[in-house]
Amino acid sequence: MSTQDETLITTEVSSGRTGRGDRPDETVLASRGLDVHYGDERALDGIDVDIPEHKVTAIIGPSGCGKSTFLRCINRMNDQIDACRIDGDLAFHGKNVYDEDVDPVALRRKIGMVFQKPNPFPKSIHDNVAYGLEIQGYDGDMDARVEEALRGAALWDEVKDQLDGSGLDLSGGQQQRLCIARAIAPDPEVILMDEPTSALDPVAASKIEDLIDDLVEEYTVVIVTHNMQQAARISDKTAVFLTGGQLVEFDDTASVFENPDDDRVEDYITGKFG
Q1: What pLDDT digit, counting tens, does each position of 98-127 carry?
Q2: Residue 175 lies in a domain
C-alpha cells in the first residue's frame, strides 16, 4: 500500500475534473462469481463487481488478464466462441443476462459496443448510423435519428454535407466517432469500449476522451484501456485485473491511483510489473 503523499499516476483524476463524484452509485451491471474458461484455460476467476449507472468505469491491467473477456461477457459477445464456458451471474438491472429467456440480440440493443479499431461498414455515413435502426425495424424519422446520433458523437458538423459519402473515407478519429454514433443510434443504456483510442493519434484520442465525458451524461460507459493516464483522466471508477483473470481492486479512480489497497496494484501502476 502506498504511503507516499504524491499520486502514483501524476495526472488529475476524474472525480475532481468532472464533478460526477457526488452522484450516488446506482448499480446497472453486477457480476457475482463470474468464471470464464476457454477450453481448459481460465480467463476470469470469480469476478464480483458492481458497475454504477451514468459513470465511466475503466478496466485496466496487463495484457492477457481478462479485461476484454469481461467486457465481452456483458453483452454476450463471447457466445460466438465455441470453446467459451461461462459460470456465475452477470446481471443487467438485476436480470442475469445468461438466463435462457434473454435474447442476446435484444440485449445488445441496450448494451452497445465500440471496438479497438474503427470498423465502419462499406456504406455511406448515413447508412452506417442507420444500420442498427433498420435491423430493429425502426419506423420513426430516420434522418432525424441519424443526425441526433452524429451530434451525440460530436461528428455532425464535420460530415453533415457528405452524408452520402463513404464512411471509409473519413479519418481514423472520425471513423471511430462514426462507430460511436452507430452504437448510440439505437438508444442503448450502456456503451462498452474496448481500447477505443489505441489506434488513434493523440489529437483524435483526445477528442474521443472529451466525447466520453459528454456521453456519460446519457449513458453508462465501461472502457478497457492499457493507458493508465487515460483511465485516471476520464473514469470515475477503476477496476484492476491481474494475471489469472482476478479482479484485485475496484474503487473510486482517485483511491485506486493515489492509495491502492493491494500492493500488487501499486506495483502495476508504478511499472514494477505488467
Answers
A1: 999 999 999 999 999 999 999 999 999 999
A2: no
